[in-house]
Amino acid sequence: MKILVCISKSPDTTSKIAFTEGNTKFDENGVQYIVNPYDEWYALVRALELKETLGGNVTIITVGNAADEAIIRKALAIGADDAVRIDADPKDAYFTASQIAKYAKDNSFDIVLTGKETINYNGSQVAGMIAEELDMPFISLATKLDLNGTTATIEREVMGGVQVVEVNTPFVASCAKGMAEQRIPNMRGIMAARTKPLTVIPVTNNEEYTAYASYSMPEAKTACKMISPDNMDELVSLLHNEAKVI
Amino acid sequence: MSTIVYITTNNGVGKSAFEAVTYAKKMGEEVIAVTVGNADSSLLAELGVYGASKVLVDRNANVDDDQQITRVIASAVETTNANKVVFSHDLIAKAVAPRLSVRLKAGLVAGAISLPSTEGDFSCKVNVFSGKAFGSVTVKTDKKIISLLPNSIQPEATSSACTVEDFNGNAGETRVKVLNTKKPEGDIPLPEAEVVVSAGRGLKGPENWGIIEDLAKVLGAATACSRPVADIGWRPHHEHVGQTGVAIRPNLYIAVGISGAIQHLAGVNGSKVMVVINTDAEAPFFKAADYGIVGDAFEVVPRLIESLKKFNASNN
Questions:
Q1: Residue whose C-alpha is closest to residue A210's, from B175, B126, B298
Q2: Could you report the predicted ipTM of this complex, rounded to two decimals?
Q3: DSSP annotation string for B60-77
Q4: Which tens digits make up the pLDDT trace of A84-121?
Q5: Which pLDDT band holds residue A169 (cuts at 50, 70, 90)?
Q6: Of B91, B176, B236, whose CA–CA distance to A153 is shortest?
Q7: Which residues on chain B are in Cβ contact (under 8 Å) with A126?
Q8: Which is more confidently placed, B185 or A73?
Q9: Three-class SS of residue B128?
């Protein structure tokens, strides 16, 4: 079983969000990057669990520059066998997806996993794009994945509920909460990660479909209006007359 | 030129579909709705009221197969010579829109919260950094796809009507076999709800949820919960709002007994107005709230229900 796990970097959830260069660039000053939690906790860990029971190989792939080696080594320390870095600043979802799809096509994987979205751009686009490029079925927002031979039984979130589907390998799935539990790398894993193979390959396609032209911050919240717990008539009146939401 | 709106009918034809059609209509070109599956034609015809000139239905394609839906929309784009496709940013769109983007070589705005700018480049506003900031996404391709975040625009009804036509979109083979689907339990799908009442560990136990359900009922609201509550099984997982759960942006969000951790706020900070009820005056949620009540939920919530009942009675 050959599994490819796509990982992305994202700012630590507690990072201060600010922009520079006339609000056109994310201000990386003081920002700690982590492996995007959905990629790490759910996609990577489930891939490792599958490998542990069925045998095989887990490769991680990211599109990024040399500074991203830290998150790559973290993913290797958790247990991935080898890593690929496509050497480029990821421009947009299509740019990222097309590089990964090219690599996946050339190296034929049985399963391609991603997190459900990154916590910085929240686009949820890359996995579906890879699936289309590879002409593979795509199971989005998978919360459970079991394999029996080449047939996978997958639970996924559907509007307000859960659906169970069956699909044959090869396929692409994006992983959400429920797939697996976070793993903390141990010292042996961290040591082993240093010498695991990391292949750096150049970009194959420079096309991009979209771009972030600018960013803005929400208007500062006005202070919270405190209401006496004994006076719910006042709250109702404020919601009706001032906030106009009821 | 025309604009295609893909309509998800898995849970009927509702508000989010009307929003997407209204949005497409406001872009100024002919609006053609496309859907798959077995939705009732009389339900689909209602899309005309919001601006669709016709509805094309491929009744042979599988409503749960993103690859088939992608092929159907792509053939509709070709047949109608459309240059824009609009989705409501639901779970079907999250699977289909990226595929369609590759197939049509059309840039995708995922989770748009505004109409495209009318001057300069074609760009739309989206939430980024889990709702902590906004970004303006420019689409550089000739064809464009916009997936509209629910509750970003008010549906506008007109007196128009439209026809519903069968359409063969060459859906092709299906490679995803659906074994079973557990359908939504509540009446109002959480991402579409205009009012959401949510509670957390402050409620002390699942047996105390009656007051939350009563409050939701008097407001016509959907119910939600915090992550710990879903994790310990007090409430079903699909009610969990926050970073790892559902992201919502209702007009009114009432949080009872939820401290307001940053991961919870990431899922609800798009709400227009937030009311927080908590015994702890230091709860971080008060910093994000519009209205705050420091008090015991078991006293405050029943009082609020009484006040709302009085309000409803005097407004009907």
A1: B126
A2: 0.94
A3: TS-TT-HHHHHHHHHHHH
A4: 999 999 999 999 999 999 999 999 999 999 999 998 89
A5: very high
A6: B176
A7: 98
A8: A73
A9: strand
Q: What is the CATH number of domain A2-215?
A: 3.40.50.620
**CATH fold of B190-314, please?**
Rossmann fold (3.40.50)
Q: How many residues does chain A have?
A: 246
Contact at CB, A178 and B307, closer than 8 angstroms: no
- Strand segments, DSSP code E, in B241-302 are 252-256, 273-278, 291-294
What's this model's pTM, rounded to 2 decimal places? 0.91
CATH superfamily, domain B2-166, is HUPs (3.40.50.620)
> Which residue of A33, A117, A125 to mutate against B (max B Cβ within 10 Å)?
A125
Best CA proximity match to A193, nearest among A60, A46, A78: A78
What per-residue confidence (pLDDT) applies to B186? 58
Residues of chain B with C-beta less than 8 angstroms from the C-beta of A211: 137-138, 140
Please judge whether B176 and A215 are an interchain contact, meaning their C-beta atoms are less than 8 angstroms apart.
Answer: no
Q: Find out whether A220 and B247 touch, Cβ atoms under 8 Å.
A: no
pLDDT in tens, B180-222: 998 755 567 788 889 999 999 999 999 999 999 999 999 999 9
